[in-house]
Amino acid sequence: MKSLFAPNAQPTRLVFTSMVIGQGLILLLLWLFYPMQLFPSLGEVFRSLGNLITTQGLIQELWASMTTALQALAVATVLALLISYLTALPFFRPIAYAASKMRYLTLTGLTFFMALLVSSGHQVKLSVLIFGATVYLVTGMTSVILTTTQEEMDHARTLGMGEWRSFYEVVVLGKLDDMLEVVRQNFAIIWTMITLVETLYQSEGGIGLLLYKQNRYLHLDGVLAIQLVILATGALQDYVFVLLRKVFFPYSTLGHA
């Protein structure tokens, strides 16, 4: 137990898992027996969750949002990788710089321009999500590329590699695990935006629209139930990305404290 309160300690997996389970149980017991007036009780949330699943299609709406989010993430990742890798050429560096600064733009103003450029509500949703995710991904990916040291590039050159081959081996292949980590960290951006976008374009439904309806009619138990579903979905996605990184890039954990 002392390892749980010692700086930089590494408790065993059993101790750490027991601590997490214990903290979770304490929070559930506090919610169950000492509910705050601001939040619905645990029983109300579970009843609302069951009602959302059986009568309002929560699972179907979650799946609709999930597929849209994955489409946007796939396109945004490809675009962000292309823009970031092009920073190897000085001509394209201003584009990456401008793209990273566009993350300060608000989506509310962008939806109007997106609607003028594309024809359907689904394309508008995808366009907004892709734009929002791309600018954040570019910021993170260019930061990863900038961590490349001169020693790494010089080592590749001493092996007889040209500039393009050195860039490919050291930056493209050598930083793929870090790029996957950037994607994992920024996937949450899409889930933050998708509720707004689905509220504006309601033709295809989605969990954002369902959340909007619950909030509009002050069904706080339903709002909290949907938020918990989104939180659980995000935690599961995080775990999948971490698992993928361990499977495809097992070397990425070497030397970590």
From TrEMBL:
Coiled coil: none
Domain ABC transmembrane type-1: 62-241
Xref: InterPro entries: MetI-like (IPR000515), MetI-like_sf (IPR035906)
Keywords: Cell membrane, Membrane, Transmembrane, Transmembrane helix, Transport
Annotated TM spans: 12-34, 69-92, 104-122, 128-147, 224-244
Topology in membrane: Multi-pass membrane protein
PROSITE patterns: ABC_TM1 (PS50928)
Subcellular location: Cell membrane
Main location, first listed in the record: membrane
The protein's name in its UniProt record: Nitrate ABC transporter permease
Organism encoding this protein: Hymenobacter ruricola
